[in-house]
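>> received
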Amino acid sequence: MAAAIHSTPNNPSILNAWWSQRWVKFMQQVQAITDPALLRGLRVKRLEVRPGLIQAQVVDRDNGSIQVEVRVPPLTDAQWNAVIAALAGQAIFAAQLLAGAIPAEIEQVFTEAGACLLPSDSREIEQRCEPVQDSARALSAVYRQLGEMVAEDPWLLLRLRGRDRQQVLDALQERRNLALQELNVQAAVDSKAASGHDQNAFYTRTVPGQNQEAEPSLALEACIADFWGRRRVLEDVHYHLVRPAVELALLRRLGPITSTAEGLMAYQQLQELYHRVTLRAWEIAFSPDGDEVDPEFHEGEGEESDTGE
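>> returned
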């Protein structure tokens, strides 16, 4: 599906957006004219963006109509699969994309996946103008117009590289569903394992009716000393504390509660809270016996969090 325009927007806030700045950098790579004064007398009457193709009609006040065509190689299926996997692996990116927003950091994700959001070499691009007279200015006018469109709708860049908005969102949603299915399967396996009697387990669940000898009931006065648990039973509990291989693994996998701004804010606050609780639990676990828990811990941590440190 093509994206067409018939007028040139001139919004400074849009032109200063990150996506527009990124497009200006691309224009410099292809040696396009970036000074608007040098493009006077030209008007982009029609512009369409398709996977791997830009087509436009430019009207020159002096030379009439010019047909412009720019071909940009789309990413391969393997490259797109790597990009989608990288985006799905970051819950915050996946949430923003599913909400319809494209973060500026997406270009780094493309790079880490072995692809480029935009061609890094002008030799990868094929440019054609009919007639060829004043083609440099006509091409530059098209690039400038497309830059303004990209600032308003960054999804055009992804379409140009081979995937439109719906294709990207569908692929992300599919990956997210698979991740949730794997999480449910793992939870079921963990639950089944916890129901057995693993000697190395942190906790072994007691199941009623499994060859247990009934213990006589005692009066409360006779067992006050064991109110918090019998020492022998507590000594039989074995545990092994290690730092997680991946911090906040479950939280990252589940992602924000909703794709709204409030959901993203709640997700960030949960991240901070989980970090603070994990850190404090680790300190308590390995503190010398008899050390008291600092009652001001939460207040102090909250002040530190506000500073962004």
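>> The two ends are 46 Å apart (CA to CA).
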